[in-house]
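The instructor's notes for this session suggest beginning with a concrete chain rather than abstract definitions. Hand out the sequence below and ask the class to guess, before any prediction is shown, which regions might be ordered.
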Amino acid sequence: MRAKPKDLMQKRRSLDYARDDRQDDMKTTPLEKKIADLAAPVAQDLGLALVCVKIIGEGNSTSVQIMAEDPKTKRLGVDDCAKLSRAVSAVMDVEDPIEGAYRLEVSSPGIDRPLMKLEDFTTYEGFEAKVETNAPAENGQKRFRGILKGVKDEQILIDTDQGMAEIDFTTLTKAKLVLTDDLIKKTANL
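After discussion, reveal the predicted structure:
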């Protein structure tokens, strides 16, 4: 039997990445959202799930980073990266969402993946994560590191060295799993 993050397959909601009015995804820029809206159906057509889109740099050094995965394995092989890259590139050539030249980078989210959707904090409950917010907590803290304890009413629960913290999902600016031996062991055979 393969090891999986806690109830990984049961806790995943629909893999439909179509956007709606709910706040299910971490904040992104309007351009990142536009590219995600273009790339998500392309990924789905290939049997993949879009994890996130990030725009890095500006001008002639702009990179568009797209992370995707096979929803069954939580991985993205080189062949799937190439297929998705070609397909997204064709759509972006037609839609032309970015002025000027850019580099398109397609990859797997990796073991120490970003946590972008509210459901990710439940899926990876029990694993160590780093979380950053745009609004300080009562004690002034904006960066947290600890063990994910799930979600309660759109509040991320994380057990830190300072105790349990409840962080409003809408204030998150960055969140990712921390690469630990436990994470490596439990995701090795996904």
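Then share the key points. Residues 1-23 have pLDDT under 50 and may be disordered. The chain has two domains: 27-107, 118-187.
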